[in-house]
Amino acid sequence: MGVLKVLFLDDIPDDCTCAVCHEVLENPREFSRCQHAFCEGCILPWLESHDSCPTCRAPVTSSDLRHLHRIWREKLYQLLMRCEFHDAGCDVTLPLKKRDAHIEECEFVTVVCPNKPCAVRLPRAEMPDHTEICQHRLVSCNKGCEMEISYGLMGEHNCIRALRHEVNNLHKEQQNLLKALKKDRDERLKLEKFVHDQACAMEDLADLIESLTTALFLIVPIVVFEIEQWFDIVLDRFGALFFGTGAGILVLEWNGDFFKLPYSLLRL
Ligand SMILES: [Zn+2]
Ligand SMILES: [Zn+2]
Ligand SMILES: [Zn+2]
Ligand SMILES: [Zn+2]
Ligand SMILES: [Zn+2]
């Protein structure tokens, strides 16, 4: 919903009007395709049920929306208007650009009493008088306990009962804190145990690798020895042929099959 046209002292150019609400553009967004502009609060709901520009019907989506061009925005923001609380007594006139800042401090804007649960609503300028006598304002107990209590409840206030209540609350808070601390500690212990178990597993793995390496050193010479034996048998009994490959590999042909062997093995 835009800013009400009736508030403006200037004539409103057509391109500063929203085609959805017919008021002056508020938080304006324009479509990059057709450059038609609308209030953000008007065009987003429109796009939930339409896929075209309300003015020219061009196909559009919310990703085609962008902020109004700087020059256009400046023209819009310079439009002179009255404060929307002028009926309540505010006689301030200002450019649209300063509207939000003025509303923040306008003395005629209705505000709610800050003392919970007071629901009194008054113009901002009258609120200080109310809060001074508000039944819900906090006052310090003058019967001895100095606790802060809602003024309206002071008549039925009993220092001992209130303090007991306070102590009970503190006790509950302390219990909750202890529970949280215990949970923290349990989790830390769990984590420490996990880290310890991982370290032990790593140590076991290192031991295993070491014993495997040792075993390998014992096995390799036996394997080499056996291959040498096998080679001798092949050479002696079957008169196999060797072909040198020049790359430290020997190819042994026997019975139509070829065996590749590193040359170094033969010299062991
Ligand atoms: Zn609008
Ligand atoms: Zn359009
Ligand atoms: Zn005002
Ligand atoms: Zn109040
Ligand atoms: Zn008291």
Give the helix/strand layout.
Blueprint: E1 28-31, E2 37-39, H1 40-49, E3 65-67, H2 70-77, E4 80-82, E5 93-95, H3 99-105, E6 110-112, E7 121-123, H4 127-133, E8 138-140, E9 148-150, H5 159-238, E10 241-244, E11 249-254, E12 257-262, H6 263-267
The protein binds zinc ion (ZN) (5 copies).
One zinc ion binds near residues 130, 134 and 136.
Describe this entry's structure for a reader:
This protein is α+β, with helices and mostly antiparallel strands. Among the domains are: 5-105, 2-Layer Sandwich (Herpes Virus-1), CATH 3.30.40.10; 110-156, Herpes Virus-1 (2-Layer Sandwich). It has six helices and twelve strands. The radius of gyration is 45 Å and the shape is flat. The chain binds zinc ion (5 copies). The site of one zinc ion has 7 residues, from loops. One zinc ion binds next to loops.
Integer average pLDDT:
87
Query: Tally the helices: what do you get?
Result: 6
Radius of gyration of CA atoms, rounded to a whole number: 45 Å
Q: Which cofactor or ligand species appear?
A: zinc ion
Please give the share of residues in helix.
40-55%
| Low-pLDDT regions | none
Strand sequence of the main sheet, in spatial order? Answer: 2-1-3
Distance between the ends: 95 Å
Give the percentage of residues in beta strands: 15-25%
Helix-strand sequence: EEHEHEEHEEHEEHEEEH
